[in-house]
Amino acid sequence: YQSNYGMGIEALLEAQGQSADDFKKSMLKEAIYPLMDEQMIMYGILDNEGMEITSDEVEAQITKTLDELKGSGVDRETLLDYYGKYYFEQTAVSEKVTDYLYDNAKIK
Asked: pLDDT at residue 1 above 70?
């Protein structure tokens, strides 16, 4: 926020009349917990269907993202420092499970 809006997160929250504790609670309730629920479901389906994510699939997600950012000056190390490798694992899981569900859905 500082670099984009000229104010830190604390000043932004204050301008919105929100405390840091209220912000944390709302982020947990509205963003983090739903994301955790989704991830648990995705990993549950992956496990239940006997599927696995390989290191090659994770690497493919990293490569795909680097290709999309080509010319931006972002390198592999910067990408992994920013997102973390788990992000790309989760992306691979989500893609694999979504494809599985699409391929196996029985719509009546």
From this structure: no
Q: Which pLDDT belongs to residue 69?
A: 94
The answer to whether the CB of 90 falls within 8 A of the CB of 62 is no
Question: Rounded distance, CA 16 to CA 62, Å?
Answer: 37
Q: Does the pLDDT at position 93 exceed 80?
A: yes
Q: Can you state the percent helix, strand and coil of the chain, rounding each to 5?
A: 75, 0, 25
Q: Which residues of 50-62 are buried (b: 16+ CB within 10 A; e: fewer)?
A: eeebeeebbeebb
10 within 8 A of 20, measured Cβ to Cβ? yes
